[in-house]
Amino acid sequence: AGNATGHGGDAAFGISGHGPGGFEYAEVPSGEGGEGGAVSATGPVRFEGCGFFGNQTGRGGDGVALPNGGAIGARRGGSGGGVSAYSGAEIANCTFSGNRTGNGGDSPFGPADAGSGGAIQAVGTVALRNCTVVNNAAGGGRGAGGGLASAGPNSVSVANTILALNLGTSPDVAGAVTSLGHNLVGILQGSTGFGVPGDLTGTVDLPLVPGIGLLADNGGPTLTHALTLGSPAINAGSNDLATDLPYDQRGVGFPRRFGGAVDIGAYEFNRAFTGIQWAPTGLGLRLQGPPNVTVQLQRNSDLNSTGWETIHSGTTDASGKLEYTDTNAIDPGDSERFYRVIEGR
Description:
Number of helices: 0
Order of helices and strands: EEEEEEEEEEEEEEEEEEEEEEEEEEEEE
Structural class: mainly beta
Radius of gyration: 26 Å
Shape: elongated
Strand order of the largest sheet: 3-8-11-14-17-20
Helix content: under 10%
Number of strands: 29
Strand content: 35-45%
């Protein structure tokens, strides 16, 4: 997190002497911004369960006007705000958030292009599965592919992945991809290859909102964007495309599938308590989660103890709701009591 590549050097010139044709100039061209804010991978590499946050590539070097009326042009900003991948990159169960590419340099002819791929620049064969790519920017919106920029023809495959809420001339994806299905793309414009069964897509006029929370510690060793209740990504992924991923990005203790199908993205939504209140007969508990899932409600008087007691097994209804009253609950203020929900067996 928070890595950055160098800026490109600015162009310069110097008068080297007076020759037969007049003054001679020694010219130094400008340079491009460095690529791959966190990682620039030129060979095969696999990322799994990783978070790429707040990385940035360098700005392109400025051009300069020459005394003879010419000019040395500016150069583009570095591409791949999080990762620049050239060959054989596999990225699974990873979150890219808050990454950006550098702007292009300025010159008398106008600014150069900003770097492309606010989160990921894919030049060679790259495969994305169950990733969340949100809130990234390509050159502050002046570059292509705020989330993903594909530079090769059909060399990038995408499956079970969220690409949304990014900023760029092609906001979420720029270029051609091979969709394996079950992706959520907020704004489709600027890309080709999506639209196969299971893909969920939006447009500039009607963006598809993924339904995610802020980047936060939701458990596990890395930060994640949790899916929120009602997210279209919940249970919309393909189990067949995630058979080798037993857990979501957070790792052990966070199963990759909860409910009938895996979720799209790096985070697997499971369940949430939406209401706890005292009732005349005990403590009323209201659970909201995926529909038609069997769960176990457990309680414990010591959060750090292993002595969790199952007090109820039940199945959420068609709306994902389950209610239960703990008739053996203690009185308020008497002591502490903790509750948790696990998937039933």
